[in-house]
Amino acid sequence: MCPTRGRSGPGTGLPSTTTGISPTLRTGCLDAVTSVSGGGSRSPEVLAELLLPVIYAYGTNTGIKAVASGGHGHTEDELRYVRRRYFSAEAARAIAIQIANATFAARSTELWGQGSTAVASNSTHVRAYDQNFTEWHSRYGGRGMLIYWHVEKKSLAIHSRLINCTASEVAAMIEGAMRHGTAMDVEANYTDSHDQSDIGFGITRLLNFDLLPRIKRINKVGLYRPVAGEPDAYPQLSPR
């Protein structure tokens, strides 16, 4: 999880020897991470060693206390200090964008094929205890929160955000496709039935990307031809 480094003292995080270059530093994802106070004198190497356990703690819901018991040599107080001073929501989003862009740039077309222009988006219900930020979700039948994801064809998440349990997933789908911030050019968005509407089709058309939903009970839905007066142009849409 952390770069392999020696230390000049127990728990100090000060590297004395370097046995390898961290892939985290190669991506440049820490360039946008600054102290909330505007200062900070930690080197990128030391900051990476401290931030990676913090990101793992929050990203996996393991918690800083549990992660601090690992064999990385940093105390719980050190990790909590870095969390308060460096790890903001804006920093987390900037890190995710840089890692996604670095992944796109490093992919070999011989192995992965041409770059994808399509994403699939959906929400995940995360159950949580009855606290201020939780809501009751009628469809999932429990308290928690919704995380809305945009994932490109080759399984790389390019955008995620927290939404209310009563919020429109159509709005979250449009916002993620527009404001993901990565180098990917989204031309199509696959969704399920909850992420599409007549308004959604209209807005995505204006934004020049295709909304491609899975529609439940499509045999009960009235479909309209793209152009009137050409019944033979779309034989699969003809009444049966």
Automatic annotation (TrEMBL):
<feature type="region of interest" description="Disordered">
    <location>
        <begin position="1"/>
        <end position="23"/>
    </location>
</feature>
<dbReference type="Pfam" id="PF01526">
    <property type="entry name" value="DDE_Tnp_Tn3"/>
</dbReference>
<feature type="domain" description="Tn3 transposase DDE">
    <location>
        <begin position="26"/>
        <end position="237"/>
    </location>
</feature>
<dbReference type="InterPro" id="IPR002513">
    <property type="entry name" value="Tn3_Tnp_DDE_dom"/>
</dbReference>
<protein>
    <submittedName>
        <fullName>TnpA family transposase</fullName>
    </submittedName>
</protein>
